[in-house]
């Protein structure tokens, strides 16, 4: 194994190749969702479990910022927290996700209670938060670079949901619409920071491993949904049961 770092072009290509190989847009659950083949309960299970991930993103970012000594990096990073939490009640990505929950027939208070989250979802998401909290700053930042691949999945999701599901409209899909402008801003900064600070081959390899880990976190969440709600449909103890948490 060489110790010589890759050129910037080759290093960036290595990062992008991770998404081309294993970003979760390739998971069969997303193909099922975007093509209109999910049942209402399968959509609800996805919304409930993905909510846990959404709520942990600002917690992950706060944990990251608590370790950053550089004020410039903190200033650049803190907008991610506001994107999800908003600057006032009812604003931000988490609130928009609850609008989606309401649209698919769920009680937003039930979803916000985090009751019914699959055990595998908790394990995967908590592992990601822990990774960002304890790993060196370079892999912690690199793990966020799944945002490189997010705009395409958001566009496909918006188009697919609008075409196939009655609940889909500008209000219920506002989370994804907003991410089309938020994610490119975040990834431009994150990719630039990683490219600048991954100066050795070991740094570059660590960044690629971190991004690979993050894709595995996302993939594991969909594997859990598939196992519990698609086939063979084994809902584990504690997982959401259809007919629970529905809007009255």
From TrEMBL:
Recorded catalytic activity of this chain's protein: 6-(2-amino-2-carboxyethyl)-7,8-dioxo-1,2,3,4,7,8-hexahydroquinoline-2,4-dicarboxylate + 3 O2 = pyrroloquinoline quinone + 2 H2O2 + 2 H2O + H(+)
HAMAP family cross-referenced by the UniProt entry: PQQ_syn_PqqC (MF_00654)
EC category name: oxidoreductase
Pathway noted in the entry: Cofactor biosynthesis; pyrroloquinoline quinone biosynthesis
Function: Ring cyclization and eight-electron oxidation of 3a-(2-amino-2-carboxyethyl)-4,5-dioxo-4,5,6,7,8,9-hexahydroquinoline-7,9-dicarboxylic-acid to PQQ.
Name listed for the protein in its UniProt record: Pyrroloquinoline-quinone synthase
Pfam families: TENA_THI-4
UniProt-listed Enzyme Commission number(s): 1.3.3.11
Similarity comment: family membership: Belongs to the PqqC family.
Lineage: superkingdom: Bacteria
